[in-house]
Amino acid sequence: MQLTTHTDYALRTLICLALQPDNAPMTVQEIARRYDISANHVAKVAQTLTQLGYINSLRGRGGGLVLASTPDSINLGTLVRETENLKLLDCFGENSQCTIEPACKLKNMFLQAQQAFLKVLDGYTLAEVIRNGNELRVLWR
Questions:
Q1: Stronger pLDDT, 50 or 99, i.e. the higher one
Q2: For position 67, what pLDDT does the model report?
Q3: What is the pTM of this model?
């Protein structure tokens, strides 16, 4: 399974914000510069993360993005479920056009694999991702 760039950037954004001293606000431009990625893409991701309640967007001078909750309360499995389209095959949708669907074994196999993937991610929080925060901070300099 391959995650989309949107989810990748969502994780990167959350890592940046979680490592900010005293939960200081960061701008979209600062986050994009740290990873050398598009500020436009980060802005779209920030909008999604704000709508989902992972971050808060502070307006005005000194504003920016901040985590809305603690890193240990942000579950990676939940985040992936909320930011990814988990329809692996056409038959995962309601209007499947697959002629062999009634007899095909693939759907159940892929569903089990997807559930196993998400179950592993359910065991991790953002706090585990940033445990090596000092190493990550050095790479941004």
A1: 50
A2: 97
A3: 0.89
**pLDDT tens-digit series, residues 86-97:** 877 667 667 777
For 70, residues 6+ apart whose C-beta sits below 8 A from its C-beta are: 127
The two tokens of residue 41 are 């893409």
Give the three-state DSSP class for 55: strand
* Inter-residue contact 11 to 31 (CB < 8 Å): no
**65 DSSP β-pair partners:** 26, 57
The total of other beta-carbon atoms located within 10 Å of residue 83's CB is: 20
Q: Is it true that domain 5-140 has CATH number 1.10.10.10?
A: yes
Cα–Cα distances (Å) from 36 to 30, 94, 98, in that order, read: 10, 39, 42
Measured distance CA(30)–CA(79) in Å, rounded:
22
User: Which two tokens mark 60?
Assistant: 């005005």
Structure tokens at 38: 């598009």
Domain boundaries, the chain: 5-140
